[in-house]
Structures are given as structure tokens and as C-alpha cells.
Design a protein that fits this description.
This is Helix-turn-helix domain-containing protein. This protein has 153 residues and is α+β, with helices and mostly antiparallel strands. It has four helices and seven strands, in the order βββαββααββα.
Length: 153
């Protein structure tokens, strides 16, 4: 099996002291994170960047081009965060395995991937589903059938 090549992603964040925690947000991506101290927020920023990069990889998209030398807008400082990311790092199962875990058909898994209910990607002829998205789906699964009368919110 060929190991997928790692990609390095480097982005600039702004890091500032919030009312209750240190906060970091990337300038060129959508997201925000926090930590109890500078070390913690730096680790959280790396985790955020890694997850955002994985999402782009799973969708087969290229993330926005990173730009640098931004002026901090929250009175903070610039923080450069760099991570190595590959789809091999994501715990995954085949679409057939996902169907079995979810108790649905293989075609239903494909439909769930297309509608965004599950996260996954194609690799040649293989379709992979992120295990975390299956776990999230199982945890939030609504009971079958219509809601009972008088149970409306």
C-alpha cells in the first residue's frame, strides 16, 4: 500500500488575551480556539489548523492561500502555526463498513456523504468515511418514526 504524502500547511493566527482565556484565530481561515495559557492556545491553534486542513483534503478542495504580515485586530500578536497533514492520519472505514456500522445500505452511505451527513472522501475507486463522523451520527441518531402528538418544541 502506498503511503499518502504529507502536506504542510502554514498559516498566520492572531493570539490575544481574552477575558477568561487566551484566544487564537487564523486570518485566512474560518475558526477560533482558546487555551488556558499561551502553550495551551498554541497547541489548540495547531489542532484547529490540522482539522481545518483535513476537512479541505476530505472534500478534495484546496484551502485558501495563506497570507502573512496581517495587522492584529484584537490587540494581540501574530502567531505562525504550521502542521503536517495527510488523510492517512484520519481514522477511517470503507463505505461498506460504514453501512454495516450504521445499519443502512451502501447507497444510503453514499447519499449521506453527498448531503454532508457523513464526512468522507474518494481515493481512486475506494470511498472512505471518517470514523468520527460515524460516531457522531450514531450519538445523535433520532428515533425512527414521527414525533408523538404534544411533543413539539
Amino acid at each position: 500500500m502506498i503511503k499518502e504524502q504529507e502536506m504542510q500547511y502554514t498559516y498566520e493566527f492572531e493570539m490575544w488575551r481574552g477575558e477568561f482565556a487566551w484566544i487564537a484565530a487564523p486570518f485566512d481561515l474560518v475558526g477560533i480556539t482558546q487555551g488556558v495559557d499561551v502553550e495551551d492556545v498554541c497547541e489548540s491553534a495547531a489542532d484547529l489548523l490540522r482539522e481545518l486542513a483535513r476537512e479541505y483534503l476530505m472534500r478534495g478542495e484546496t484551502p485558501p492561500k495563506a497570507t502573512f504580515d496581517h495587522e492584529p485586530s484584537h490587540g494581540g500578536v501574530r502567531l505562525i502555526v504550521s502542521v503536517d497533514v495527510t488523510l492517512d492520519d484520519i481514522e477511517k472505514v470503507s463505505a461498506a463498513q460504514a453501512a454495516e456500522l450504521l445499519g443502512v445500505s451502501r447507497s444510503r452511505v453514499t447519499a449521506m456523504l453527498h448531503s454532508g451527513l457523513l464526512e468522507g472522501w474518494k481515493d481512486g475507486r475506494n470511498t472512505w468515511v471518517a470514523k468520527a463522523s460515524i460516531d457522531a451520527r450514531l450519538a445523535s441518531r433520532a428515533p425512527a418514526g414521527r414525533p408523538k402528538a404534544g411533543k413539539r418544541e
